[in-house]
Amino acid sequence: MGSVDYKALAPQILEKVGGEVNIVSMAHCATRLRLKLKDESLADKAGMFSQVFEVIEGAFSQPLDRDLVNVARFITHLRYFFVRVHSEEQVQDHPTSFLDAIATAYPDAHRCARRVADILELRLGQPITEDEISYLTLHVARLTQAASIGKPEK
């Protein structure tokens, strides 16, 4: 594994998060950099969407048609999710049995949603609640089922 050129990487990260003036605080561990931003809307959401779609496509070994209705629904869900994270109001009030039922009904989508949540935690600097992961699971399942069946969406 090659070494990382952190001096070259730092300006790229700053550009993606809206510049140094947009960073309120920063923390890191061996594997993650966590940034608290003043204004989440300044961060590169398009890059985040692309990364999320790459994870989903890789997990299911199938490309997603980014022009489908379910993809637009998923993007809308993520945009509302970003607002909830930014306002520190993530969904977190469903009973565990409900969340377990979703994970059981869609095991592959749930594993993928957990990977997506890891990326979102890394990019947004906040943990993602189990309820939000369950909603991601439902959206991932919808995306991948529509793509694998090949039926037109309504």
From TrEMBL:
Record bears the keyword Kinase: yes
> Origin organism of this chain?
Propioniciclava sinopodophylli
Keyword list, A-Z: Kinase, Phosphotransferase system, Repeat, Sugar transport, Transferase, Transport
Question: Which Pfam family, an example, fits this chain?
Answer: PTS_EIIB
| Protein name (database record) | PRD domain-containing protein
Q: Which domain of life is it from?
A: Bacteria
Under InterPro entries, the record lists: BglG_antiterminators, Glu_permease_IIB, PRD, PRD_sf, PTrfase_EIIB_Cys, PTS_IIB_1
Catalytic residue positions: 29
Q: Where is the PTS EIIB type-1 domain?
A: 7-92
**GO terms (BP aspect):** phosphoenolpyruvate-dependent sugar phosphotransferase system; regulation of DNA-templated transcription
Molecular function (GO) terms for this protein are: kinase activity; protein-N(PI)-phosphohistidine-sugar phosphotransferase activity
* Domain PRD as annotated: residue spans: 40-150
